[in-house]
Design goal:
six-stranded parallel beta sheet, transferase, four-stranded parallel beta sheet, 316 residues, alpha/beta, Rossmann fold, Glycosyl transferase, family 4, 13 helices, globular
Length: 316
């Protein structure tokens, strides 16, 4: 079950709405009727899932269906889609079966308007967030020597960790170290890039992200695509300096240029771009985002819940 929907169902909204979480892969068509005021789907749209989605629509014809688009974005298409026209057709057919498409960031919503000609009336810009109290509790630390960088997430092409590891090799281990948390299909390939250097360490999946971040000087997010980018929100809430690519939902989380204390943008997203961004951070004596930025990030959870409240109230 998706963490985002689990968090929503466990939030204070449960006092106003009754949630029932059902795990379904949508691979086989099942004409199950659900006794619900509204159905929310959180699964990546695909041709393979289309028959199951059609069956769900037919079996629940009078029930509004909301689809949370958490998977696709403008940069996803650029990096992963060989036939954009066919991909666009798949999205249009899928979205035609739902009443609303819920987006996790404004850049993603804007892309759907441009790419799929999706009308604004079909979109609900609910955004993405999480409860961040454990991250807000992370205390500010003095910069380490060597500089301690952290990166975390699924070890996949999307996250750009291959570029990061190659960039780290440019620095002596007396200047910079990198700890990577997470697991995924690219784990072995990434470990081979490291070879036998102690400068980069892999610690596998972690349960306590805030504790992981507490010992880092900065977090690197070199993602190739990111519909939202929850790692950035978590890192900012923890007060950490953030080195990130300005793409998709990550770009939305960047403050205005004159207010970017604690942010270093990777431009362009390349090995060279990452090296230059790390060099700039290495020259900083005081690292971290501002306290006002941390507080603004903490408020994002309440703001998102309010948008969900307004949306669900339409179907009560």
């Amino acid at each position: 079950m998706n963490i985002a929907l689990e968090s929503l169902a466990a939030s204070k909204l449960k006092q106003e709405f009754q949630f029932q979480l059902i795990h379904s892969r949508l691979y086989l068509p099942k004409f199950n009727h659900y006794d619900a005021s509204v159905i929310v789907i959180h699964a990546a749209m695909s041709w393979r899932k289309f028959p199951a989605l059609l069956a769900l629509k037919i079996a629940n014809w009078s029930t509004p269906i909301l689809y949370q688009e958490h998977h696709y974005s403008r940069e996803f298409v650029r990096h992963c889609v060989a036939n954009p026209s066919r991909f666009k057709l798949m999205l249009k057919l899928g979205y035609a079966l739902v009443d609303k498409v819920l987006t996790v960031s404004n850049p993603q919503a804007d892309w759907l308007v441009d790419f799929c000609q999706l009308p604004e009336s079909k979109i609900a810009r609910v955004g993405q967030a999480k409860e961040l109290s454990s991250f807000m509790a992370v205390a500010k630390i003095r910069r380490h020597s060597p500089l301690r960088l952290a990166a975390y997430g699924r070890l996949t092409k999307q996250k750009g960790f291959d570029l990061l590891i190659k960039a780290i090799a440019h620095f002596p281990d007396t200047d910079v170290t990198l700890t990577i948390a997470g697991d995924g299909e690219e784990k072995e390939a990434l470990q081979q890039l490291v070879e036998h250097k102690s400068q980069v360490s892999f610690i596998g999946e972690i349960d306590d992200v805030s504790t992981f971040l507490s010992t880092a000087d900065a977090v690197v997010i070199p993602s190739r695509w990111e519909p939202f980018g929850l790692t950035c929100m978590e890192s900012v809430a923890a007060g950490k300096h953030v080195i990130l690519s300005a793409i998709d939902g990550l770009a939305e989380q960047l403050p205005n240029p004159d207010e970017r204390i604690g942010f270093e943008v990777i431009e362009p997203l390349s090995i060279k771009g990452i090296i230059e961004a790390i060099e700039k951070v290495s020259n900083e004596s005081d690292l971290g985002v501002s306290e006002s930025q941390r507080l603004a990030t903490e408020q994002a959870w309440e703001n998102m819940l309010q948008r969900w409240r307004q949306l669900l109230a339409e179907y009560k």
